[in-house]
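Work package 3, deliverable 3.1, input record:
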Amino acid sequence: MPSRRAILKTAALTTGAAAMSSCERTISSLSSAFGQSLPKKLSPAAGTEIDPEFHLLSRAAFGPWPGDLERVKAMGRSAWIEEQLHPERIDDSLCEMRARRFESLFFNEGDAYEFKKSVLRNELTRHSMLRSIYSRRQLFEVMVEFWTDHLNIDQEKGDCIYFKPSDDRDVIRKHALGNFHDLIRASATSPAMLVYLDGRSNRVTKDNPVPNENYARELLELHTLGVHGGYTQTDVREAARCLSGWTVNLLKEKKGGGKRGPKGIIQRFQAPARGKSFFDADNHDNDEKNVLGTTVPAGGNEADLDTLVRIACSHPSTANFIARKLCVRFVSYDPPASIVQRVAAEFTRTKGDIKAMLRLLLNSDEFLAARGSLLKRPFRYIVSSLRALAADTHVEAGRNSHGPLLEYLSRMGHGLFQYPTPDGYPDEEAPWMGTILWRWNFSMALADGKMADDVIVPLNDLDKALGTKGSRDQIITRWWSHLLGRQPTANELKSIASAADAHQDRGNVRIAKAELLGVMLASPAFQRC
Amino acid sequence: MPALTQLLVNGPAAAQAVSTHTLICVFLRGGADTMNLVVPYADDHYYNARPTLSIKASTTVKLDARYGFHPLLQPLEAAFKEARLGMIQGVGTDSASGSHFECQDQMEHGDSEKAPSAGGGWLGRFLRSRADQSTSALSAVAIGTKLPESLRGAPSVSVLEHIGDIAIKAPSGDPAAVVGALRAMYGADVTLLGQRGLQTLDLFNRVSAMNNTSYTPANGAEYPKGNSFADGLRELARLIKARVGLEVACIDLAGWDTHFFQNSTAGSFASNAQKLAKGLVAFETDLKQHRGDYTVMVTTEFGRRIYENASLGTDHGRGFCFMALGDKVKGGRILGNWPIGAMDETNPIGPGGIGITYDYRDVFAEVLAGAMGGIEAANIFPGANLKKMGLMG
């Protein structure tokens, strides 16, 4: 196996010398050569219950990539969790390389205006999908998805589409496994958030003494304390006063806006670059405030925001709210109080250390006991399918790449960064139940190679790695165990076999296999994790 | 269609058949010159401003003492007389940009220059607000190949050109084996997922029963051949009849950007007018027994100037005449200010044309509430005043 330096050298040559599109195939083949390939032999879990290591990979990663299960079993669950909690120690250069193609994501907020909305929309979603499929920092990507929902921004609102890429990079990804306080602090002045929840219009002046409460309310209701967290409507207004004056420059030219100074004279000031957030003291309410029983002294200026974030993040309700939300995402829709309490206590003890909470949660008995109880939301459903099959996406570069995947996502109701309300895509079953048909069709298309321009599945290699010997039922059982982490029930085996029998007589082995696989991916069991 | 009827009455799917009202949004893309569709024939200004493009008073289909239809809209006269088709004159967005893109975007997002944007499309927000109700895989359908902005953010949208797109595309081409296996597995699942999986299979059965039957529109309805607008309406009629839970459907009729050689009763504008009328009438005829089940609204991003230009066309304007059709519409009337008052092109900002008396959001909200009921329109159009128009019963 060549050294990492050799890989990077090759990559540098290809990216430097050729257009992105022509080197994609090279990168694609590189990735199969350097680790994200298929092991020669796979040993799926053989129990009747979902395998514990499989379970861990289903929740703390976007499902196992072939070979992951064996690796976690060899190193132990706790060691794997520890490894994942330190993403910086995991070499992810191949994924990084593939992510470079999305150039709109590397621009500053103001410069993103140079891109068409369709390009921005497309690239950010494809980027998330790419990393979720291929990154070895799987827990990190899982947490990126979690915080993206928690601090939801609909890129379709106002100018958010130009700012969400930097929010993704400088807020969500920067703090996904960091400290909760830092995450909220970064989000509070993120241009995308200032636009999405109208913070940019939160001005308190003599003529307009009423602040815009939108962001302040969601900060307390959705980002920190939770709706039953014990804050009052007065707290919301006081929080909004603390935040007043923070805004973002949306203007194209840097000539700045006119401001009415003393005696009504219009004054000019130098506004920061387009797309930058800044504090405008003239629109800030600098009097004393009282939030959640804590006095914020007069004259705090921009530091009022820091004080507010500290008060909100340190409130006991916040520890409970965040702990419960993590448990709903990782354990069950109605998580046992025991685990919620312990995670909340860990939040309090470590002052919001996300790693510490995850370490406790993922190593807990409650986590282990809750196998197969969650519905995969469409994004996880698609990504886990692609990972289970070692699919190679991005085969052909260009605008159309990932087209079918994005279309399926959107048909299933999960076109990323498009959830209109600030509560984010729901962690519930019911809202996703209207789109099961499109899950089935995705599974059929994937199994049948219908997205071959975009996604290649090495079915024959998988077949070999799982073993082609044995009876029909044995082969089905191995495939099922590979995908589901347990043996099929009698009914599952019979149902799957019936789909195979229907085509066996006609002698078309390829079709029979595709239907088998399609039905397994479409099964109720594979919708869960 | 005996097979389908039987299925609906007796079949296993009957219990799950979803009864709902469907709102169909027809978008005339390009900025339709509604002044030549609903013609103010009693106004000399109109004739003075359009020496070559105006529709002769004698050829209009008289609706009242002021307005008459373009002769090719004659098929819609009956619905107007039955008070099922109503209009509002002088509807528009407050975007003064005169840009197709900006104005369509604003309208489809349900935005205004004055209010903060709410995120997503207006129909997406509506459907999301009802997402806890029994959403079907087909609660929102857009005819075409591309998701319209108005449906962005919806819990589920199916973009399709033909009912045949609603299928379980089994690798063998025959879904029977796949459906059998799925039925066995979802049937054994006692959770919500199992239940909704079975409902989805029933939905598929209903639609595939339709696919397998060559469709004969009811009541001798004739959808004009060879135009995608009529084809789309036909597919929507089939979905409405099949009671698949269709709540919102979007369909476009494009080609209204008539800067050059607009012509009056022949040419591309006239041909579009004809497509609109014939398509809607075929749809109405086909659904004669289901008239309580749908409401159609017809909108465009802006109207056009009153004066014809030097290339015998009309340039981008502001206000337009909005139409709504259905049992729930209090039709047979053309509401709104007579356009003469605004005919001097004195719109304070933006392009001239018919003045805007009504915020399009008031109109959309009223149609949505009147058609679908039980909605909190203020959540769908935050910041709008939502004045009552009296268009809906």
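Chain A has a mean pLDDT of 88.
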